[in-house]
Design a protein that fits this description.
AhpC/TSA, Glutaredoxin, 2 domains, five-stranded mixed sheet, about 20% strand
Length: about 350
């Protein structure tokens, strides 16, 4: 493996900027380090997954015997595309004691899109479209996100870049930066919270409403309008439409509104910058853990959900926001005194 690593790094250096860029920090490493501080040294979750080809993989049976390399990625993610040659190389050169699995985040994805991506990049490794369990178990915050599980069944490494630390983890299945054994903060399934705290420090109830007003939840991401304008232009336009309509319709709707941003590739600082840039008046909160997105089964942005005073979902819009005025009118009828 050390010889293979040296050969790969030489090829990487000779390949030019398009490949070398995959080892340069684009801001995602900070999110990976946050995840590493909560996972490295902990026993890896023993989950069973199914690939897009129907193969069942019991991760628990691999732990303690093999190194397991899970790479979270998305078709719309530029650094993921740049790193795909490395992932295919890792798979093709993996020895009998290493298992490589590509985990598609299934966030704004389709099966057809993943199949097309696989053919384009000639991917041969097992591909899993996550149902949310893997993202929760491995605290997904960024794409790509590398997770290496050592032969001892513990998380040995979490990262974002292609670098010597990742290669060392793949070679030995041990943490290369001394993180193994560090105490972590999050244990197992956390469950979705009953409230979120907005950027302004206000508490927003997701369950039963004390005011008896319905709630309109706008699920979004601060990077959707700009970043996806290239890879998924229709989605980018839909996110902009959701924001612009929500700003206008929320003024006299009789409902409580909250914009809920995904924690994938985002944090409170990024969400605050988005609010300032777009002059957003709607209350905004960040779902760092992704628990609220999973609670409502949201896998695409934008998604708008109308929730009644008892916390029950009444109506949902996904992607196409043309029916948003009708949803708001329905919310008005659910408001105290509404007809």
């Amino acid at each position: 493996m050390p010889k293979l690593f040296a050969c790969f790094m030489l090829c990487l250096a000779l390949a030019g900027p398009s490949v070398a860029f995959a080892s340069q920090d684009d801001g995602g490493e900070k999110y990976a380090k946050e995840v590493a501080s909560t996972l490295v040294g902990k026993p890896a979750p023993a989950l069973t997954v199914t690939t897009i080809d129907g193969q069942t993989i019991d991760l628990g049976k691999l732990y303690g015997h093999k190194i397991v390399y899970l790479k979270f990625w998305a078709t719309w993610c530029a650094p993921c595309r740049e790193q795909m040659p490395h992932l295919e190389h890792a798979f093709e050169t993996a020895g009998p004691d290493t298992v490589v699995i590509a985990i598609n985040t299934n966030f704004n994805e389709t099966r057809e899109g993943v199949d097309t991506f696989r053919r384009k990049f000639g991917l041969k490794m097992p591909i899993v479209m996550d149902d949310g369990r893997l993202a929760e178990a491995f605290h997904l915050r960024v794409t790509p996100q590398h997770v290496v599980i050592g032969r001892d069944g513990r998380v040995a490494y979490v990262g974002h870049l292609i670098n010597a630390s990742l290669e060392a983890a793949l070679a030995g299945g041990k943490s290369p930066d001394g993180l193994a054994g560090r105490k972590t903060g999050r244990e197992g399934s956390r469950g979705a919270p009953d409230r979120l705290t907005t950027l302004d420090g206000e508490s927003f109830e997701l369950g039963v409403s004390a005011s008896r007003k319905p709630r309109i939840l706008v699920f979004m991401s601060p990077w959707c309008e700009g970043y996806l304008a290239q890879s998924q232009p229709t989605t980018g336009a839909q996110c902009r439409s959701a924001r612009e309509q929500s700003e206008k319709l929320s003024v006299h709707s009789g409902a409580q509104w909250l914009g809920i941003a995904s924690g994938l590739w985002s944090d409170s600082e990024a969400l605050g910058a988005y609010r300032t840039k777009n002059k957003v008046r709607l209350p905004l909160a960040i779902d760092t853990s992704g628990d609220v997105f999973r609670r409502y089964g949201v896998k695409r942005i934008p998604t708008v959900i109308l929730v009644d005073a008892d916390g029950k979902e009444v109506q949902r819009l996904t992607s196409d926001m043309s029916a948003l005025p009708a949803l708001v009118a329905r919310a008005a009828r659910l408001s105290p005194g509404g007809t």
